[in-house]
Amino acid sequence: KVLIDVPPSDLAEELEQSQSQAQALQDTLQQVLDRREEERQSRQLLELYLQALKKEERILSKAAESETEPRKEMDVVDTGTSSTGVLAKTALSEQTLAALKGKPAPELCLDSQDLELVVREDTEALASSLSWDKQKAEALQQACDQELSKRLQQVQTLHSLRSVSKGKKTLP
User: Fold this and answer.
1) Domain carrying residue 158
2) Which SUPFAM superfamilies does the record associate with it (predicted)?
3) What pTM, to 2 d.p., does this model score?
4) What is the CA 42 to chain-centroid distance, rounded?
5) Count of domains in the chain?
6) Most buried residue, 5, 101, 171, 172, by most Cβ within 10 Å?
């Protein structure tokens, strides 16, 4: 860095070289410094990227752990409440309620078991649990029912394709 900052004429005099050779030396030194700076920045960027990957892995592993943990849903028999709105509020898990509230198309985010629970839920209790009006809750239940039907249709189609595929394998 010091050699680059020195005027080329002084450097040429000190090295007993021509001024053009001193300038070429300074240019080369500057290129080396620039390359080192680029390498340093690349290393920093790579470290940040690796840190972000590790953070993302931790988040994904926590999400996977929470999905594999058994759900802490209350059983209707265990609640000891009557079959009014309070009972219906406890039939859906907090995760399911959060998904219903937070997603624009929650029926696509829920598993089939949760879809069945939503469809079977009392409309008024569902609306109360979500702080929605009854029409919006009914629309949600219809969307969940349609998604459930669509999934059932896909499973039936898959079974049909498998049976056709097995039939072809057994033919001579």
Assistant:
1) 94-168
2) C-terminal domain of DFF45/ICAD (DFF-C domain)
3) 0.44
4) 27
5) 2
6) 101
